[in-house]
């Protein structure tokens, strides 16, 4: 791949605990081009930690990697001051729940234009115009009015679209979406995903979608990494998810009830200790 | 086991000209031993109905009967032994400083039941946990284990109706499968009547015989489980909801 945005080799994240380090993420390697990559796993598998480590948002953790290259930058070697110019400008993150991620006492429009003001030299009026056109791009009707609303005055779906607008306003090259739709209803979820999909494909942004929802990842992403106990156990094309080899992936797929899937007992994961043994998957 | 009948359930807030009906007029009935689902968007009033049934909310009009008896006329003790509720988030619904033993012992003590140790052991084994878990605290349990304890707490008074308020939405798929299996085993064995709130139609399809689609406090349509496959709903909103779920679910 010529236009690799992100190249990660042997990423490890560990926290200092009682008597040594606890490894939250072990030897995760992958590359990302201008595509949509899903990271799936159960809670506690380390998927969100990977996302945060890429943005260096884990002040108490020790992050090591053979390579952690974002375009021309070596992320681990950057000083915090340089990191500030990358974070939110070239690499940004969409968080799970708009109710908790938007500042409740500031108007949503201001929060969107703040993203632009922080990284570009411009007047407030210009930033406002930028923000409003971005709100239009995420299909919010009546943007002028919405700009002046407070977070409690917008619905969950609209809040999440505002978050997307905020993160895409600076035209980043990499967006990490950490469970962007798990707080939304099914009907709204599809709308939000379609908007995100369109924007990401039109602008050629690399997207990492972190989710516990296999259906979402299967429908939305190009490739999928499956994580268990801090390691990537399998890497697959999203369209070939049903051909999964690793028993953990197969178990996850089988545990899911389906509409019209019958009433047989759902198969239950039989967790094996050997899944925690170190394995190397290159994606 | 008992049937449930809800007639003209409504909630009005405020007085006079400012009065707002947040739950206009809900009626449905559930046969004994049936599993009935309530689905809809957030804010459509699904959980509110369960809260009215269990009298966690008391400001409602209409009539709810369980096994032919009005819930309002039932004495508290009888009501608690007729219906029990399992809540959405096992991280919030168990007291962090009470051991599983305390959690299970309290209802037995209040209701003056005998053979307490034996009953506690039976309840905890029934939900598939080892007996020595009685001495654990919630922080020593995983999410799925906590939800099992919450189910054991509901079962220990031997109710006939279980109200399930999104019992698996806070859990991972793999753990969700375990809890759904447990719930359907219990129903097969003990013949409970379930009323289950969920926003996941795949879960509703797996568990329920019939379900009601709700929007803005009103029941849009009551459908059989078979109607999901191929989307046989007639009302536009129900069709839209099922279509969205099918689209999301399909792509296999």
What's the layout of helices and strands?
The complex is a heterodimer of chains A (283) and B (252).
Chain A: E1 6-17, E2 20-32, E3 36-40, H1 47-54, E4 62-64, E5 67-70, E6 73-74, H2 80-86, E7 91-94, H3 98-101, H4 108-119, H5 124-137, H6 143-147, H7 156-168, E8 174-178, H8 186-203, E9 206-211, H9 214-220, E10 223-228, E11 231-237, H10 247-254
Parallel strand pairs in A: 3-9, 3-10, 7-8, 8-9
Antiparallel strand pairs in A: 1-2, 1-4, 1-5, 5-6, 10-11
Helix pairs in contact in A: 4-5, 4-7, 5-7, 7-8
Chain B: E1 4-13, E2 20-30, E3 35-40, H1 46-53, E4 61-66, E5 69-70, H2 76-82, E6 83-86, H3 90-93, H4 100-110, H5 116-126, H6 143-155, E7 161-165, H7 173-190, E8 193-197, H8 201-207, E9 210-215, E10 218-224, H9 236-249
Parallel strand pairs in B: 3-8, 3-9, 6-7, 7-8
Antiparallel strand pairs in B: 1-2, 1-4, 4-5, 9-10
Helix pairs in contact in B: 6-7
Number of domains of chain A: 2
Oligomer: heterodimer
User: What's the count of strands of chain B?
Assistant: 10
CATH topology of the largest domain in chain A: Rossmann fold
CATH homologous superfamily heading of chain B: P-loop containing nucleotide triphosphate hydrolases
Proportion of residues in extended strands of chain B: 15-25%
Structural class of chain A: alpha/beta
CATH class of chain B: Alpha Beta
CATH architecture of chain B: 3-Layer(aba) Sandwich
Helices and strands of chain B, in order, run as EEEHEEHEHHHHEHEHEEH
Helix content of chain B: 25-40%
Number of separate structural domains of chain B: 1
Question: Which superfamily, in CATH terms, is the homologous superfamily of the largest domain in chain A?
Answer: P-loop containing nucleotide triphosphate hydrolases
Low-confidence stretches of chain A: none
Rg calc of chain A: 20 Å
Number of helix segments of chain B?
9
Summarize the main sheet of chain B: 6 strands, mixed
Question: Mind telling me the C-alpha Rg of chain B?
Answer: 19 Å
End-to-end separation of chain B in angstroms reads 39 Å
Q: What would you call the shape of chain B? A: globular
